[in-house]
Amino acid sequence: MSIALNLLYGVLGVAALYYGAEFLVRGGVNIARKLHISPLVIGLTLVAFATSAPELVVSVNAALTGNPDISLGNVVGSNICNIALILGLCAAIAPLKVDRQLFRVDVPVMVLAAVLLVVFYLATGGVGRIFAVVFLAVFAVYMVWCVRQARRNEKLEPEAVREAKDVIVQSGGKKELNWLLAVLLVAVGLGLLVGGAKLFLMGSIYFARLVNVSDAVIGLTVVAVGTSLPELATSVVAAFKGESDIAIGNVVGSNIFNILFILGVAPLLAPLENATLSVVDMGMMLFCSVILLPFMRTGWKLSRPEGVFLLATYAAYTAWLIIAG
Question: Does 125 reside within a domain?
C-alpha cells in the first residue's frame, strides 16, 4: 500500500507542477504587462523566486533538523540540475536567444555566488553564520541593482519597453487579465508548485530510502531534482512558447537565489557544519556555472548541440553519483 501511495504522490506532484508553472507564467507576465517590466526581469525576480520556494522550504527544514548534507546538497544539486538538465533540455527543444544584459551582469553574479560557496565550503566544510551574512549582503546589492536597472531601462529605452510589452502579450495570452485575476493566478500557481514539489519529494525520498543511499546523494539527486521541478516546468513551458528570456532568466535567477538567499537564511537559523559533499560535487556546480559564459557568447544563444552537451554532462554526473554512492 505504501508503494502505491507514494507512486500516487509522484504523479499528483508532477501534475501540480505543470499547471502551477502555466498559471505562474501567465499571471506573472500579465503583471509585468501592467508594470511595463521586461520578461527578463520577471524571469530573474518573480518567476525565479517563486519557483525556488521549494528549495528554500526544504533547505531551511533540513538545516533545522540537523541534516546539513540535504540542505547543502539540495542547493548544489539544484543549481547543477537547473543548468545541465533544465537549460540543456530547453536548448535541445529550441535554441535559446541570450539577452546581453543577462550575459554581462546576471550570469557573472551567478558565477560569483558559486565561487563564494565553493571557497567557503572548502575552507570550513560547511556554511556558517558569518558566510550567510556575506551571501545576504551580496544578494541585497544585486536586488537593488535589478530594481534600479529596470527603472532606468524604462526611462531611457521606451522602444525596448514597447517591444518587451509585445512579447509579454504573446506569453500572457491575447486577453489581458485584471489585477485580481493575475495576482490570483500567481498565488495559485505558486501554491501548486510548492504543493506539487512536496508531494513529489514525499514519494521520491520514500523510494530513495528503500535502496539505502546517503543523505548527501539524496540531497544532490532526489531532493535537488524534486525541488527543481518547478524551474523545469516553468522553463520548458516558456521554451515551447518561445520565451527565451523567461526560460534562461528563470534558471539564472533561481541559481542566484538558491545560493545567496537560501544559504543566507538557512545557516543563520542553524549553521551547516560537517557536511560530506565532495570536491567533485562542488566542482560540477562551478563548472556548469562557468561553462555558460562561452556557450552564451557564441552567437548570443544556447544552441541545440550545447544543450545536448549539458544533458550529457548531467547524465554522466548522475551516473557517477550512483556508482560512487
Answer: yes
Looking up cell 551567478 gives: 110
Residues with Cβ within 8 Å of residue 325, at least 6 apart in sequence:
213, 214, 216, 217
> What total number of domains does the chain contain?
1
Q: Is the dihedral of CA 155, 156, 159, 165 positive or negative?
A: negative
**Distances from the Cα of 191 to the Cαs of 24, 151, 198, 225, in angstroms?**
10, 29, 11, 18
The predicted-structure confidence for 58-87, as pLDDT tens digits, reads as follows: 788 788 878 888 889 989 999 999 999 999
Answer yes or no: is 16 within a domain: no
Please state, in angstroms and rounded to a whole number, the distance separating the CA atoms of residues 250 and 231. 7
- Confirm whether pTM is higher than 0.90: no
Phi, psi of 97 (to 5 degrees): -70, 135
The answer to whether 187 touches 165, Cβ cutoff 8 Å, is no
169 part of a folded domain = no
- Binning the chain into helix, strand and coil, the percentages to the nearest 5 are 85, 0, 15
